[in-house]
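Lab notebook, bench 4. Still working through the backlog of constructs that have no structural model yet. Next entry is a single chain of 178 residues. Request: give me the structure tokens for it.
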Amino acid sequence: MNDSTPDHDGVRFRTPTVADGAAVWRLVTESGVLDPNSSYLYLLLCKDFAETCVIAEVAGRVVGFVTGYRPPSRPGSVFLWQVGVDASMRGHGLGKRLVSAFLQSPGAAGADTLETTISPSNTASRGLFGAIARDIGAEMQVGPGFTQADFPPEGDHEDEELYRIGPLQADRIKQLTL
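Model written out:
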């Protein structure tokens, strides 16, 4: 993804670099909602999976991100792993704009299906992805992803349902607000 020029509220979307890994990790840990992973993992995502990740920044400060990848066994899919928005930017549509930027990233080129997993209690994410499917005129299928039993017992993690949105059409994705 080429760096974008700042939009109407000063947000710029760009491809991450290793220097963004710590800021992404901080946003995840401060969110209180996202599953935190090691800081090392976010460094790897920003380095080795940069083409399927997006940073949103305002005046040089990271205020949102998307991490994802292309599943090797499903080359027609692009998997969105985490989307996070700084508390100061919530309620302004940044999550939807980040997903739009993700779907227009170099790593998503040619994908016909967007995949993600969402826990049943995460109404915000369910609403976000439902709105994206509607806005691009795509079907959204929800099926089993990971069960609570798949996660370590000490984590007390909810099920994660698999959401599949498609078919993706580049002209419809470009209509999403950026």
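Notes after review: The domain at 11-173 is CATH 3.40.630.30 (Aminopeptidase). Strands lie at 11-14, 54-58, 61-69, 77-85, 113-118, 139-146, 160-166. Flag for follow-up if needed.
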